[in-house]
Amino acid sequence: MTFFEAVLHYGFLQKALMTSSIVGIICGVVGCFIILRGMALMGDAISHAVLPGVAISYLFGINFFFGAVFSGVLTAIAIGFVTQNSRIKHDTSIGIMFTAAFASGIIMITMLKSSTDLYHILFGNVLAVRSSDMWITVGIGFLVLAAVYLFYKELLASSFDETMAAAYGLPVRLIHYFLMTLLTMVTVASLQTVGIVLVVAMLITPAAAAYLLTERLWMMIFLSAGMGVISSVIGLYFSYTYNLASGATIVLAATAIFILVFLLSPKHGIIWKALRIKRKRASLT
Amino acid sequence: MIDSVIIIEDLHVSYYGNEAVKGVSLSVERGKLVGIIGPNGAGKSTFLKSMLHLIPSDKGSIKILGKNMKEVRKKVAYVPQRSDIDWDFPITVLDAVLIGTYPLLRLFQRPKKKQREWALHCLERVGMKDFARRQIGELSGGQQQRVFLARALAQNAEIFFLDEPFVGVDVSSEETIVQILKELCRSGKTVIVVHHDLSKANDYFDQLILLNKELIGFGTVAEVFQPEVIGRAYSSQFNWLNEMGVSMP
C-alpha cells in the first residue's frame, strides 16, 4: 500500500498528517520572529527546557501543556536573571540554564515513566498520535496564530527596533516573555511530531529559507509556514514508507528545502549571486 | 513666560555599576534645537536614554512636558544610532516609516490608507518618497537616516531625540536632516541631538549641553565654546598634548 492510499485508509495516519501540518505552520510562523530577533539559541534552549515540565505534569496527572509552559517560561526568566545580574554573557547563561533543566527532566522522566517514553518525548512518535493529542495541537495552533495575528504590530515594532518600541511605550520585556510562552506552546505541540531535541530545526530552518526569499515580514511568515507544512508532509511520507523516526525525516526535508533556497533564491541565493558578480566583472573588462 | 518642556533635577544614572551621569540639572525650552556633546564615554547616550526612561535613574527627577515620561511617551520620538538597527530585516522603507504611526494607533488597530498616505508624506519631506518600496538595507547611510527621521516625523511628536544622527551620513543628507530639524523647531517642536563633532555645532544648534559625566556647560554655543569650559570636558583627552608641550587652559 502506498503512502497516499494509507493516508486515506488509516485514521492514525490522518491524525499524524494533520498534527504535523499544524506543527509545520506554527513553527514556521513563530520561527520567523525567533530568527529575526537573533534568538535561535534561545529557541533551542526553551524547547529543551520543557522536559522537566512534562515530567511534573505526569507526576500530578495534569495535561503536560501546563507543566511545559511553566518550566519553559521559568527557564527563560532564569536565563534573563543571570544575564542581567552578572557579567556572564547571554549565550553562556542560556547554555547553563537549559542543560540544567534538560538534565533534570531526563532523570525525572526516567524515574516516573520509562526510557521508551523518554525516547518518544525526545524524538517524537508521530504515528502514535491520539485524537486528544491532535485536538490539543489544533487548539495550540489556533491560539498561536491568533496571538501573532492580533499582536502583529507590536511584534513587528519590537523585533525591528526594540529601543524605539520601548521609547513609545511598548512593554518590550513583556513581549519577550510573551514570545517565550508562544515558543513553549509550539514546543508542546511539536512533542509528538518532531520531539524536543529537533523542534528547533522546525523553528529556524523554514524561517531561514523564507528569509532568503523575501523582503517583507508578512510574506516571510507565509512562506515559512508553507515550507514548514511541505517539510512535514514529505518527512511523514519517508517516515511511514521506510519506517524511520518522523522527527528526523521531517527535519531533513526542511534542510533539503533550505539548501535548495540557499542555492537558488533569486536575490540571495549563492548561484545567482555568483552569476551576477561574474557578469559584472565581464562587463568591466 | 518661559515654557520648559524638559526639566531635569539632580539626575544620577549608573550603567553596570559605573556612574555614567552625575547630578545633572537643567531645563530645555520649547522650540530649541539642543546638541548634547562631550568626549567618548561621557555618558551622552546614557543621558539621552535615561531622559527617555529606557535606563532607570538612581536619583533625581525628569519632567517631560510637565509630566512623567510614562504619561507622555507617545509625544516623544526617538531615532536610534544607525548601528543599533538590523539593516537586513525584511521590511520596506514605507513599512519602517509606518511604524512611526503605531504609537497613534490603538491595540489591535492596523495602519490603513490614511496612515500610509501620511507615511508617504513624511517620506516626501525627507526626499525619500521614490524609495518607499525598497528594502531598508539597500539604502546608503544618509538615506537610511532620512528614513528614520521620516519615521519620527510620522509620530507627530512634540519632542524629538536623535542619537548620533550624522555618523556615516553623506553631506547632502546631513544638510537635509539639519534643515528639517530647524523647521521642526520653528514650528514649536523641541529637538535634542547627541552629537560628537564639535566643528559644526555652531551652525546647527541653538544650545549645547556639554557633558562629561557631570554637566560641564549648558547654554548657547558661544557660552559653551569657551576654552576654559571645553578644556574641563576634554582635559583627559588633551593629556597627550600637554606631554608634547602644548598648553591647554
Automatic annotation (TrEMBL), chain B:
InterPro entries: AAA+_ATPase, ABC_transporter-like_ATP-bd, ABC_transporter-like_CS, Metal_Ion_Import_ABC, P-loop_NTPase. It holds the Pfam family ABC_tran. Keywords: ATP-binding, Nucleotide-binding, Transport. The keyword Transport applies. The keyword ATP-binding applies. PROSITE patterns: ABC_TRANSPORTER_1 (PS00211), ABC_TRANSPORTER_2 (PS50893). Residues 6-238 form the ABC transporter domain. One of its GO terms (molecular function) is ATP binding. Belongs to the ABC transporter superfamily. This is Iron/zinc/copper transport system ATP-binding protein. It comes from Anoxybacillus andreesenii.
